[in-house]
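User: structure tokens for this one?
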Amino acid sequence: MDSTVLAMQNNNLPAKNYVPTQRYCTEPNVDIGESKTNLIINYLPQGMSQEEVRALFASIGEVESCKLVRDKISGQSLGYGFVEFKDPMHAQKAVLSFNGLRLQNKTIKVRIQSEERQIINNNTTRMFKFIQMHSSLCQTWGISNRG
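Assistant:
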């Protein structure tokens, strides 16, 4: 496991050699300079191993890291994982080549991780606006918005 991740898990503080590569913000949909080499892969077949995922993506280019996410208790795959390429061009080629690929009984979804975060941010913004509108209407009509 990466020493930075391990240090952060142990005491919630970054390791001394931690160098932030992103600026932090609270505003949704703000570009924070994310890497274009990190991919998230969804809908992986249950029987697919981390080594098989790595081999598949290594057919495109040099893979820096590969992580298949597993259930902590059973050890069974949760059907998604992360691949990091050394070269952003290889990451983009992997998205174009493998997004929508049928593997066993599943059709995988491959995205650059920052794109996935953008989708989440868009949904969060919509939900926040809805809650603001709902609260405003409740206040206007004198209705309690608590349950």
